Amino acid sequence: MSTAVPLPDKGGPAGVAQGSYSADIRACTAFREVAEALAEGRELDAVLHVIAEKLCLLTGADRCSIHLAHKETGLLHGHAAHAPTNIDAQVKQMVSGMMQDSFTREILATRRPVALSNTLSDPRPIKSAMRRWNAQSVLGVPMVLHDEVIGVVYLDSENTLVEFSAADQELAVAFADLGATAIRQAQLTARLRSSLSTVATQNEQLRQAASLEEQLTEIVLRGSSLREISDTVARLLGKPCAIYGNALRRRVLSSPAQ
User: Which helix (H) or strand (E) holds 237?
Assistant: First the structure.
């Protein structure tokens, strides 16, 4: 499949084919747009949609869908897609990587792109899925993060048999790596938010503990009774408070409402 689309009124460097130069410019522009989406800290779903859109543009594929692996089952679940019409809802219902899905399992095993020129004659894909989507030719590319396949990018042509070139496959690998980077960034952001939330919770608990200690010290120094101490603790903590004597006999019990 040709990825070259001439740019009007602009020539490439001397000795470089116009089509090749134009394709390089388009690829660099697409990379920049994805990098900007990452730098802006957009949501993972938005970044993956940009990646899917740019891959369709650069390879000429009719559709691109991105599927992420489930940690427990290892199966791949549809997450984002780009096509002439909105197919997100249908893609998000898709599951791949089952035992009978030799196409996807080959991608997971080799960690390399796998291209199917004719899904009707190739025994590896699930035929019912190919017919449902009318996918004639398909390219599957693994998304690798920390030496683990965390997802697969699928590109396909509808109604027409095509040959995904080596250049198409390498472009898809590069963008799949960008997708893996987006997922890693989303994971790090989630961990950071969780850590900040934990720190905030701990700080609030320390503040409450310091306030409780201060008020208890004040009422003890005042010579307050056990009832007053118990009532204060129950009120501050919002929980019942009981004080027991040496024989483990309850001396007083207070509730938050008191």
Answer: helix 226-237
